[in-house]
Amino acid sequence: MLLRLLTLFIALLSCVSASLSTAAPKASGPNIILILADDIGYGDLSCYGATRVKTPNVDRLAAHGLRFTDGHAASATCTPSRYSLLTGEYAWRKKGTGILPGDAALIVEPGRVTLPSMLRQAGYRTGMVGKWHLGLGAETGRQEWNGEIRPGPGEIGFDYSFIIPATGDRTPCVYLEDQRVVGLDPADPVQVSYREKIGTDPTGREAPELLKVKPSHGHDQTIVNGISRIGFMTGGKAARWVDEDMADTLARRAVRFIERSKDQPFFLYLATHDIHVPRVPHRRFAGRSGMGPRGDAILQFDWTVGEIMTALDRLKLAQDTLVILSSDNGPVVDDGYQDGAAAGLGAHRPTGPLRGGKYSNFEAGTRVPFLVRWPARVKPGESDALVCQVDLPASLATLVGQPLPGAAAPDSFDVLPALLGATQQGRDHLIEQASQLSVRQGKWKYIPPGRGPRVQANTGVESGNDPRGQFYDLGEDLGETKNLYAERPEKAAELAALREKCMASPRTAPGGARQAAGRGARDARASGSADARTQHGRGPPWERRPSCLHLQFSPYR
Question: Is 133 considered catalytic here?
Answer without folding.
Answer: yes
